[in-house]
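Design request, tokens follow.
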């Protein structure tokens, strides 16, 4: 299904693409492809946290304090960090929100802030739990440069050795099957209701399945161009 945009938008408003989906559904990969196609910024809240913490900004220091205690970063702080990033020039035309909002409360607050000020598209990446486990449990990460491989889909040329820097590869603790199942449980409880929320406020979603990310993104853009006049 192709998304319907907010009825209160006007021509010339920035395009906001929201990517929904379970962990391992390919949000990051799709975000890169869609950002290229729409020529808009790719915003990941995870990257925002890391950037602010690394630069030791005031927002980063506050977020780090919660993270180090194992606590969730409060929504107010997340939104402060997000809208600080959205104020940069590269977001004037639009941006893609990769994995945000994560809860119904965040979705409502984001809708309030953007209402009448943006053209919103919602993409829902539909992937089975079995496929999520297959994707995440096979990931291997370089201990030095961080390059990611996959045992099945993108194996290194030499077993357990990074193609880029020849360092050792390892499986991140959150890529084990037990942790993946726990992450899926959190997703169904907290994030899955966000999809229902957007449908309730007169948004439908583009369902993007398990096909190749580039083909899936291109197919979705072609539908949008045909039905919603996107260039």
């Amino acid at each position: 299904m192709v998304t319907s945009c907010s009825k209160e938008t006007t021509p010339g408003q920035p395009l906001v693409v929201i990517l929904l989906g379970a962990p391992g559904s390919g949000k990051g990969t799709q975000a890169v492809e869609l950002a290229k196609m729409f020529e808009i910024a790719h915003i990941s809240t995870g990257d925002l946290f890391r950037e602010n913490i690394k630069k030791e900004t005031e927002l980063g220091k506050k977020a780090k304090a919660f993270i180090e205690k194992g606590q969730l970063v409060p929504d107010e702080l997340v939104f402060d960090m997000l809208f600080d990033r959205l104020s940069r020039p590269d977001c004037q035309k639009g941006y893609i929100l990769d994995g945000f909002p994560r809860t119904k409360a965040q979705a409502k607050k984001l809708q309030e802030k953007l209402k009448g000020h943006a053209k919103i598209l919602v993409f829902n990446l539909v992937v089975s739990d079995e496929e999520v486990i297959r994707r995440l449990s096979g990931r291997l990460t370089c201990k030095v440069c961080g390059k990611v491989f996959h045992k099945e889909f993108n194996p290194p040329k030499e077993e357990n050795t990074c193609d880029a820097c020849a360092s050792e590869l390892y499986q991140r603790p959150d890529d084990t099957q037990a942790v993946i199942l726990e992450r899926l449980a959190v997703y169904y409880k907290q994030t899955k209701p966000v999809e229902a929320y957007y449908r309730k406020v007169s948004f439908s979603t583009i369902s993007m399945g398990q096909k190749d990310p580039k083909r899936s993104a291109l197919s979705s853009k072609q539908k949008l161009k045909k039905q919603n006049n996107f260039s």
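Comment from the thread starter after seeing the answer: thanks! Residues 62 and 80 are 11 Å apart (CA to CA).
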